[in-house]
Amino acid sequence: MPPPLLTVSVKLPGRRIKVAHPAPGGPARPDELLPFMYAVDNAVIAVGVAQQRAQGRTITCSKGCDTCCRAQPVPVTPAETLALTRRVQAMPAAQQARVRTRFADGVARLRQAGLFDTLMRDEPTTSPQQALAVTATYFGLGLACPFLEDGACSIHADRPFVCRQYLVTSPATLCADPLSAPVAVVPMPLRPVGAMLKAATAVAGRPQLTVPLMLALVYAERHHDELQHTADARKTLTAWLENL
Ligand code: SF4
Q: What is d(CA 208, CA 144) in angstroms, rounded to the nearest whole number?
């Protein structure tokens, strides 16, 4: 049985939007609520894009442009690390082997570069300067996302919040090095990642922080038990909506 349809009214600056999408009831893990949250996020993003277009700006992102997928750390929430792990587990064997190899290679490069412990949040960064240096080193490695296949996202419908929200109106080539280039990112009306971290913290019983997508599989394995925690689905969704 598919989950029942849930309709919510989401408050944006100056307006409200209604979103209807299936959502589980009863006890649920935070990752099980992601399809509903992504549907809300898509509707919010559509508003952000419409605002840009109304101001005469053009979104330069398009299918076939993979610049941002080839260098950026792509922070994902812990719940998304589990969702991505399950997505990989569901892939046909040959594709799964390819994707797992890319993840393993990327993790090895991060270990060699001395970034693994910091990015896994085992060793907190001690200053904004250190955090910036870590990000700059990450960009320098030029790690392509393991889900990138033939220049396109192979998990497009299930891509994380950050991938959905990252849209630009500046030339796409600048996205290869946004630390030193003036990238014009489309401002989005709401912040679903921070809201998810807050909502999931209550479920996990421990502060939830983002990690780079490249570490998703190792993070989900290391935090397996914590990511299995459940709470009332409606309560978690309400917390998420209130923190958007
Ligand atoms: S998940 Fe998809 S959209 Fe996101 S970085 Fe990877 S390939 Fe790009």
A: 25
Per-residue pLDDT tens over the stretch 112-129: 999 999 999 877 677 888
CB 239 within 8 A of CB 199: yes
Is the C-beta atom of 45 inside 6 A of ligand 1?
no
pTM listed for this prediction: 0.94
What is the whole-number distance in angstroms between the Cα of residue 5 and the centre of ligand 1?
28
Q: What does the domain layout of the chain look like in residue ranges? A: 5-243
Contact 183, 139 (CB under 8 A): no
- For 223, the 3-state DSSP assignment is coil
Q: Is the CB of 116 under 6 A from ligand 1?
A: no
Pocket test for ligand 1, best of 38, 68, 153 (most atoms within 8 A of CB): 153
**pLDDT tens digits for range 166-225:** 999 999 888 888 888 789 999 998 999 999 999 999 999 999 999 999 999 999 999 999
Decide: 159 in ligand 1 pocket, CB within 6 A: yes
> Helix 34-54 crosses helix 192-204 at what angle (to 10 degrees)?
160
